[in-house]
Design brief:
Blueprint lengths: L1 E4 L3 H6 L1 H13 L3 E3 L9 H5 L3 H14 L5 E3 L3 H14 L7 E2 L1
Parallel strand pairs: 1-2, 1-3, 3-4
Length: 100
Amino acid sequence: MKVGLFIPCYINAVYPGVGRASYELLGRLGCEVDYPLGQTCCGQPMANAGFEKDARALAAHMDALFAQYDYVVGPSASCVVFVREGYPRLLDNYREHACV
């Protein structure tokens, strides 16, 4: 099982230990974990502020970056829910990911 670890921008900036712990935990559970470089904000702050059009580029980037994984795991409920619920609305060619 190939897992892409999505570390939201605020976790990276404020709680980096959560990102490291998530990586280690998934590895101990037997997952093939990858942290794709080039991750950015998922676009949730922009979309929540009413700028969904501006969030599309971030959503498209994240969608393409994680396309190769069986699962996408992120230690932030709000960001994961935004990807699951918001991306289909933002992207015409959205590929549904198993995002948990």
